[in-house]
Amino acid sequence: MKVKLIAYTPEPDKLASVAANTCYSSQSASRIIESITPEKSERIIKRVVASGHHSVIEHAVFTFSIEEVSRALTHQLVRHRIASYSQQSQRYVSMKKASYVTPKTVADNPEALERYKKLMDEIWKTYGELADMGIPNEDARYLLPNACTTNIVVTMNARELLGFFKIRTCMRAQWEIREMANRMMTEVKKVAPVIFEKAGPTCRTEPCPEPDWPCPIREKMDKLREKERKEEEERRRTERKKKDEMGIEG
Ligand SMILES: Cc1cc2nc3c(=O)[nH]c(=O)nc-3n(C[C@H](O)[C@H](O)[C@H](O)COP(=O)(O)OP(=O)(O)OC[C@H]3O[C@@H](n4cnc5c(N)ncnc54)[C@H](O)[C@@H]3O)c2cc1C
């Protein structure tokens, strides 16, 4: 699998903070963008992301090239409707060359692997034979398995990505799409570190909605959230104290 961020809105954090600030300022976005400082921008984004005022982060969009993943993965991916997709066609592109994903559970089981490979070989052999008989790609492809590899370009805005990461980086998500979502998350964190600071599974920011399901990361995430809650409480206490002191002195 390859996951590449091939294009994105320049300075996504700054842009989203300018959009947010426009809502509360007498100045227009074209003026605000000239003067906003990175510190103010960060403060605004943290506030809007935490408060749920997420429409302002829709202005930042990200385009990924997702390569050599299975059709089983892309079938799940395209269920996410607030996105744009362009996928390699099995009508216009011949699938004569065998290319498929092998899940680890299969790869780790010699008997399963042998049977898996045997069937894949048979599928691609028959695909080639149908093609040689003049059967068009669009009909020969009916033979192809979910494991068949594909390439897809996907564009999502930051709001959709946050929601996508919540459910697809969760340990409940299927392994291949989870791996892809984690790689996408790593890429966007590099270019929009504030918007995506707390991106991750739902349990990154709130208690797991499926607490009865055994999860290997639940305890770790619960501890992380508790640590951050205490830090935030402490930060607010210090801020309040500072304000009170300034009030007394002033
Ligand atoms: C672990 C897991 C298991 C799953 N299992 C199955 C399964 O067995 N069968 C199955 O069919 N699917 C399954 N899905 C897919 C799932 O039901 C969703 O279709 C998919 O995750 C897309 O989610 P979404 O609709 O929230 O996202 P998007 O389509 O990306 O939408 C994002 C958000 O926009 C809003 N939105 C979008 N469209 C509408 C609308 N028409 N009306 C109102 N609000 C809207 C919603 O708030 C939504 O959450 C599974 C998903 C996961 C993560």
Could you characterize what this model shows?
The structure is a single chain. Helix content is 53%, strand content 12%. It has helices at 12-24, 29-35, 38-51, 71-77, 104-107, 110-132, 137-140, 158-168, 175-191, 218-249, and strands at residues 2-8, 61-70, 83-87, 149-157. A 4-stranded antiparallel beta sheet has the order 1-2-4-3. Helix 1 (12-24) crosses helix 3 (38-51) and helix 8 packs antiparallel against helix 9 (175-191). The structure holds flavin-adenine dinucleotide.
Explain the layout of strands and helices.
Elements: E1 2-8, H1 12-24, H2 29-35, H3 38-51, E2 61-70, H4 71-77, E3 83-87, H5 104-107, H6 110-132, H7 137-140, E4 149-157, H8 158-168, H9 175-191, H10 218-249
Antiparallel strand pairs: 1-2, 2-4, 3-4
Helix pairs in contact: 1-3, 8-9
The structure holds flavin-adenine dinucleotide.
The site of flavin-adenine dinucleotide has 9 residues, from helix 8.
